[in-house]
Amino acid sequence: MSDVAPLFNQLSTQLARHSGDWQLMPFACRTLPWPELAAVLERLDEDQLDQLESNPQQALELLAPWRPELSALHAFTAPVLARAADYATPRWSNGIPGRKWAQIKDFAANITAEHAILEWCAGKGHLGRLLAMEQQQPVTSLEWDQDLCRQGETLANKLTLQHHFHCGDALAPEAAALFKPKQQAVALHACGELHLRFLRHAARAGTRALALSPCCYHLIEGNRYVPLSNAGRRHDLGLSRHDLRLPLQQQVTGGERVRRLRHLELTWRLAFDELQRELTGGRDYLPLPAFPKQLLSGDFADFVSWACDKKGLAVPASLHSEHWLAAADDRRLLVKQIELVRHCYRYPLELWLLLDRVLFLTEQGYRVRLGTFTDIHNTPRRYLIQAWRE
Length: 390
Ligand SMILES: C[S@@+](CC[C@H](N)C(=O)[O-])C[C@H]1O[C@@H](n2cnc3c(N)ncnc32)[C@H](O)[C@@H]1O
Fold this sequence. Notes:
It contains 16 helices and seven strands. By secondary structure, it is α/β, with parallel strands linked by helices. The protein has a seven-stranded mixed beta sheet, sandwiched between helices. The radius of gyration is 23 Å and the shape is globular. S-adenosylmethionine binds at residues 121-123, 142-145, 148, 169-171, 188-189, 194. S-adenosylmethionine (SAM) binds at residues 121-123, 142-145, 148, 169-171, 188-189, 194.
């Protein structure tokens, strides 16, 4: 990969300069944080906001007069890497959803292993199994869920593959010993801390070949992201877990049902926030944790009971649902206006995080390649970082 330092510096400068556009919590805002954007954002109705949300290019064009630097931050496009020749499903892949299977096949299409393979955070080891078949190299899959390990081991035995599971915790210190110099290490969709460890352990062991597709950047150990690379530490953006979720706020694989549920969830969360301010007399936004989607098939009163329970509040004796839901409508519009701006930084921030990993590996003496390994319709988490060293 050509020198990415200038691109990383440019991203760092612009993300820091415009941190007020994206390092904020839309739910906590009661007014639009950018008076200069009021005229353009407030004339959009909710349908127009939703439409712009699903067309990032149009959103960039709309904001260009006020944020001219944004389009330059979107100018870099990661190269398209190798894709599988076909997505035919062998008998053993029964039960793997189509999109997942396409991701596995596309990831594998980029691997030519000269050494034994280590699969990091393997699940049932579908990728490891395919690689064991295609690469004629022994595969060790690390996974901590015993049930998944057992299922993966059973399949490997049935197919008489050199594929074994190491059932253990990737975050335990002893996991470092799994990395060897003569090895191809792979990690498909390893979450934040898991893939940070993968990179650090591999670099320390001098592992020859790495392939990683990162996901869930926010699942880190501390509350703040500590950049991996020297360059990243020089341009530390002070990223919180909330900031690190920004690249994940992209819904490309959802249909109408997903959109409807998101609308309902947004409305209920905001309606509850209005209610809790009244109940507590507080002026601050009270974040609610993630919840199972089946809660959305009940009614708002059930949701309020659940939320009050989570926050240690007494459930109000009588609840005027209509009142709170109407109050949420105005705030939902405001949240969508703010998200329209904030989401313009989704790609630059993900690129910054990816380049932090790329620069770390470069600093460690690796030759590195960054690209997209699968179609966006299979998953929005489709970046692949590959690294080799002699
Ligand atoms: C997002 S899934 C990816 C699975 C597989 N690589 C794939 O793409 O289908 C992450 C996997 O990591 C495993 N995992 C999570 N934390 C772990 C840990 N601390 N040690 C080992 N495995 C872990 C989970 O059980 C899960 O199977």
